[in-house]
Amino acid sequence: MLATLRARPGFAPTRVTVAVGQASAEARVLPAAAQDGDTVLLVLDLDDLSHLPLLDAPVRLAFPDGSAVSGRVAPVAIDAAGIAPDHAAAIGRAAAAGAWDPPVAAALRWRLDHPDIAAGPDAGLHHGVPMGGGAMVAGWVANLGDRQLVLLSDGLESARWGARVAAFAWPDLSDRLAREHRTVTTDRHGFAAVLPLLRPGDRGFLLFEVEGHDVRFLTRLSWNGQGHGSADQALADTLHHLGRGRGRPDPADLRPLLARRPVEPPRAETVEIVAATALPALSVVVPLFGRPLLLRAMLAGAAALPPDAELVLVCDDPDLAPFARNYVRDRAPLIRRPTRLLVNAANYGFATACNLGAAAARAPVLMFLNSDASIEDASALPAGMAAIRDGRFGTIGFRLLFEDGTVQHDGMCFERHRGYDDLWLAEHPGKGLPPRPADPGVESVPAVTGAALMIAADWFAELGGFDPGYARGDFEDADLCLRSAAAGRPSGILRTGRIVHLERQSIGPDNPSSRALTWLNANRFNDRWGAYLEARCAS
Amino acid sequence: MRVLTLAHGHPSLRPGGAEAAALALHYRLRDVEGVEPVLVARADPATIGHAARFGALDGMMDQILAAPPGEDGFLHESADLSILERMVRDLCDRFRPDLVHVQHWLGWSLDVVPLFRALGIPVVLSLHELLLPCHRDGQMVKTDGRLCHAASPVACAACFPHHPPGDFHLRRRVLLDRLAGVARFVAPSRFLAARHVAWGLPADRVSVIDYPLSPDLLAAPPPEPRVPDGRVRIGFFGQLTPYKGADLLLDAAARLDDATARRLAIDVHGIAAVPPDHPFARRLADLEAAAGRRARLVGPYAQGTAVRMMRDYDWIVVPSLWWENSPLVIQEAQAAGRPVLAADIGGMAEKVGPGGAPGRLFSAGDPAALAAALARIVAENGAPPPGEVRAIPADEAGRVDAWLAVYRAAVATA
Fold this sequence. Notes:
The structure holds 2 protein chains of 2 kinds.
Chain A: E1 2-6, E2 15-20, E3 23-29, E4 39-44, H1 52-56, E5 59-62, E6 68-71, E7 74-75, H2 85-96, H3 102-113, E8 123-131, E9 134-141, E10 149-153, E11 159-161, E12 166-169, H4 171-179, E13 188-195, E14 204-211, E15 214-222, H5 231-242, H6 251-254, E16 268-274, E17 282-288, H7 292-300, E18 309-315, H8 321-331, E19 339-344, H9 350-360, E20 365-369, E21 373-377, H10 380-389, E22 395-401, E23 407-409, E24 413-417, E25 423-427, E26 443-445, E27 452-456, H11 457-463, H12 476-486, E28 491-501, H13 514-538
Parallel strand pairs in A: 17-18, 17-20, 18-19, 22-28
Antiparallel strand pairs in A: 1-4, 1-7, 2-3, 2-5, 3-4, 5-6, 8-9, 9-13, 10-11, 10-14, 12-13, 14-15, 16-19, 20-27, 21-28, 22-23, 22-27, 24-25, 26-28
Chain B: E1 2-7, H1 17-30, E2 36-42, H2 45-48, E3 54-56, E4 63-66, H3 81-95, E5 99-102, H4 112-118, E6 123-126, H5 153-159, H6 165-178, E7 182-187, H7 190-199, E8 206-208, H8 215-218, E9 232-237, H9 246-255, H10 258-262, E10 264-269, H11 279-291, E11 295-299, H12 306-310, E12 315-318, H13 328-336, E13 340-343, H14 346-351, E14 359-362, H15 367-379, H16 397-413
Parallel strand pairs in B: 1-2, 1-5, 2-4, 5-6, 6-7, 7-8, 9-10, 9-12, 10-11, 12-13, 13-14
Antiparallel strand pairs in B: 3-4
Helix pairs in contact in B: 5-6, 9-11, 9-15
C-alpha cells in the first residue's frame, strides 16, 4: 500500500517498521528530496496482508536508528475523487526523485496537473476480476495499435506498462467502430494486464497512453464488488495474451492473486457442547461451511464414530454461525460423543479452520472430516488409528464413495496436466467408477484427500498444519501429505468400512472461477513441489 | 470376456433408438456365460449427481454414466483430449476390458478409437445412422428435403454453403483416419452397411447384425387380435421430428375421401422434439386442424409401454422421411403382432415385408401414396397382409451369437 507520513527533522531513512497492535510490517520510503515537515510516501510491503487495521488505528513507526513516533497512516488515492494537496506534493517529489519508471512518472505528473478527470469514449472494460489481493483486467482502446499503455490502480499499488500490458487484435471492435462511422486504423484494440496488488476495496484503474513526455489520459475503468466478467475468461485472456516462455505469466504477478490473509491472527470462540469425561483417543475435526443440512446430518451420524472419539466442529461461516451455535446446543442431549464447537471470527478457509480445530482437539490422533462426508461404517477408523500410532504412515486416508456407491476417493496421485499448462495436479484415479474389491490392510499411496484424513496430533503440529496460502479448499491436503512424506512418513489408504463423500455439495456447484483458482493454486503447489515430484517420477 | 460398451446416451435418461439398442444388447450379454459387459453411457453432468466424470446409474455398477468433455460438430474431435485420455485410462484401469464396443461415439468424439487402440484394446464400432458420411444430423436428407443418395464434397457443400467443398473432403479423410483402428463395423441393416461402404469404410470389415431384442420385447405376451369397434385404427409411435414423417401422415389423412375417413382413426403418439414455437411444431398443429376428426396428436407415451399401446391399433405406420436404420418401432410393432405400413426406403424397406415384419410399403415422402395405402387398409377392414405372424423375427436367436462371434474375432486379431 502507498501511504504518506510527515517527515521529521533530518529525516532520511529508506525503511521504517509500521506496527499496529501485535502486527507489524516493513515499509519502504520512496526516495524524495523531502524538507522538514513535508509529507513523504511510504510503500508498505504488506504482501498479502489486509491493510485495514493500519488505516483505522494509530500506528507506531519505528526507524532504523531506533527512534519511533506514533501517527496515522493516510492512504494515497489518485482516482476520480481528487488528490489531497500534500499527497500530490509528495507524489511529485517522489516522481522527480525517480521513484517510478519514466512512463509511470509521466502519467502521474499528468494526473497531478489535472485535478478533474473525465471518462473518455475511446476505451472500455471487458473484464475486471478481483482475485486474492489483486485483479485480472482486460479492455479495449480504440485503435490502440502499437501505442504504449500505462495502467495505474486507484491506490497506486499497481502500475503496469511495457511488456506487462499485452495488446491484441479485436476485429469485432473494428466492425463496431466502423458502424459508428469512426476511423479504423488497426484491428489491435485489446489490452490485458494483471494488477497484482490492490488496496482493499480498490475497484478501478486509470488508463493512459504515454509516448515519451507525451501523455494522453484515456479514462478510468472500474468494476463493482463482484467484479466484471468471468474469472475463467479473465484467466484465459491473461494466459493467452501475457504468456511468456511456457505460456505462464510472471509468477511474481500471480502470487498476490492467491488468498489474502488477515493481518490479525485467526480467532475462534470455543463453545463446549458435550464435555469429555476421559481423554479421547480420536478427535474428529469437521470444518463447517454453507448448508445447515450437512451439520444436522453430521450430528445425527456421530453415533457411528468410535466410542472414544470426540467431535470438534469448526464453524468457518459467519452466516451459518447463529444456526450452528443454537442448533448444536439444542441437540446436545442427543449427541453421543464429547463435542465442542468453534465459531470462527471470519471465514478463514479450509486450512485455517482445520488448524484451529486441531489446536482445540484433545486426542493424540486427529481425523479431519469434511462436513459433506458421512461415516456410515466406521470400522476402518480403529485400523487407521493403529497405523498412525505405529508410525509407518504419516497420513491415513480412506476410500470414499459417492451417493451411488462409486468411488469418490481411492488415494490421489500426481500427474502433469496438459489442460493446466503442464503443471502437476493431484488426480483421483477411478473417480466415479465402481470400487474394486478391497484388501483390509493399509496400502501406500502418493497422497490422500483431506476430506477424511487421519494424522497424529503432534506430527500435524510439527509439520505446521495445513498451509492457508492456497485459495478455497484445494491442494492443502496434497501439500500436507507431501510434507509428511518428504519428512519420512508417507500416506496410506484404508478401503474397509463405508464413508460417503458428497463432494463439493457443501459449497455448491463449481463456480466459474474454479478453474482459474485451480490454476493459481497449482502454480503455488508447483513452485513448492514441482522439482520434488519430477525427481520422484524420474526415480 | 470383459466387454466395455460406450453409448451416447442411456434410454432411461433420453429416449432414442440407438440408445435403446445399446441397452438391449447389454442386457442380452449379461445372460451369456463368460461375458462380463459394462455399459458406459454419456450423460449430462447434472444427471450424474455428483462432481465427477463418472457415476453409476441408480447405483448399478454395470451401467456407468459418463460426462466426457464433448466434441466439435464437424470433425468430431474431443473438446479436451487430455480429459478424455484420462477417462479412457480410468475405464481401462478399472474394468480391464478385453474389447471395447463403441455403440455410439457421439459426444465422446471419434478420438476414443485411437485412445483405446493405443492401450492395445480392440475396438468394435456400431453404425446406427449416417452421421459419418452426412454432416446434416446423419440423415442424408438435403436441406431442401430431398433424399440424398451419396455424400460427396460438392453435394455436402450444397447443404452447407459456408463450407467450401474441400472441407468435406478433409472431413471424410480425418474421420476415416480416426476409424482406421476399428476391428469391425457392425450395421443393423444391409442398407446402412452399404451406405458406409460407399462412403469409404472397408467392406471386408463391415458386418450386418440386426438389433437384438430387449428382454422386455422378448417377454411381451403373445399377440391377440384387436377387438373390433367399427373403425380401423392406425397408430404412429415415434419422436415428433421433421424426419419421422408425422406431418406426412396428417397430410395424408386430410386427403382421404369422407367415406373412408369415417371408418378410420389415426392417433399420433410421440414426444415433441422441438419447442412449441418451432416451425415444425406449428406445421403439425396446422395439419392436425386440417385433418379434423380423422387424426389427432395424442402426446407422449411412457417408455416400455409402446407394445401394449400398439395392440389398440390395427396397423402401425412408419412414414419416416429419412432412410432409417432398423427402427425400434418396427420391432415393437412385430412384438405387438401388428402389421407395419412403412416408407419404401432404407432400413424400413429392408425390415418390412416378405422375410421381415408383416406389412406393406408406400412411396416415401408421397402423401397421396400414403393416403392410398391407408384407404386400402380401410377397404380391407384393417386385416393384416396374408402370411405367418411371428412376434419374434426368425433370425433373432442368432443375433447375440453373431455379436459374440464379432467380439471373438476382434479379440483374436488384436
